[in-house]
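Researcher: Re-running this chain for the archive, since the previous output was lost when a drive failed. Same request as before.
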Amino acid sequence: MNPPARISLARLPTPLEPLSRLSAAYGTRIWIKRDDLTDTVASGNKIRKLEYSIGQALAEEADVLVTWGGVQSNHCRATAALAARLGLKSHLVLRGSEPNERDGNLLIDSLVGAEITFAPPERYQEMDHTYKHLQAQYAGQGLKTYRIPVGASDEVGLWGYINCANELKQDFESAGISPDAIVSATGSGGTLAGLIIGNALHGLNTRVVAFNVCDDEAYFKQKISKDFILWKDRYGSGLDIDQLPINVIDGYVGPGYGRATPEVFETIREVARLEGIVLDPVYTGKAFNALLQEIRSGKFEGLSDIVFIHTGGMLGLFPQKQKLFESG
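Model: Regenerated structure tokens:
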């Protein structure tokens, strides 16, 4: 295989830590992979994928990174921050209207100088049309654009968590564990897809599971299956992708993407109090709350070690701080 060009941007490897007090409280040994520590401003899982997306952009001599996401998109914030670090321009197309206050991720987007277009849902979905327009606009300025999909979740971005699986293998050897499950949130599918492929390529011999924070199980199985095909075709892998299990546990989306139930905020408080680790209400808090519910219900009974991937996103907590206090 010939993986894409990579530029080193993340602070790796990230630590694997035991959650001792939570484990004692729930009767299952839980570990956490601290991918919230991949950077300060561009922290989280997105930077692993962007090492390859931006590496490809630089290989194609791009000047402007164009991408999409919600108003509080972690991915867009990471893209904008990394573009600024590298002397590139960034243009973010954010789903929704401009809020009265720029907080959380949006505050950082603005601070690092990203160009921002706020788009209503129907216009947001016209990504091809929008990209062609921006491509022509920047070409008129003598600049070349590079398109990064939502969450950097395509066959290029998959390499970020394919390589993370190899890092996890070394973590497990150092800790002397053979986890029964690796668990994460999934919102655009790239982290989960990369972990699934990496699990097979690097021989972790464990189960990879994700809790969807938007859409449903059927959507992610279709999206990830498509990304598997694109990845195999582009990079010439001999891996039998038809045999790769896609495990998505549905039923925990709650009120919708970016919106959490009081139970999720309670889990965020519990993890912060017991372990000093901050989760967010969009991805990690929702997925970790789902994990604890699955453990309580006995669906994960008999598993000796579970590794949760902390994909970052703490900045997404700030725009919802009032809800955090209200649920207390």
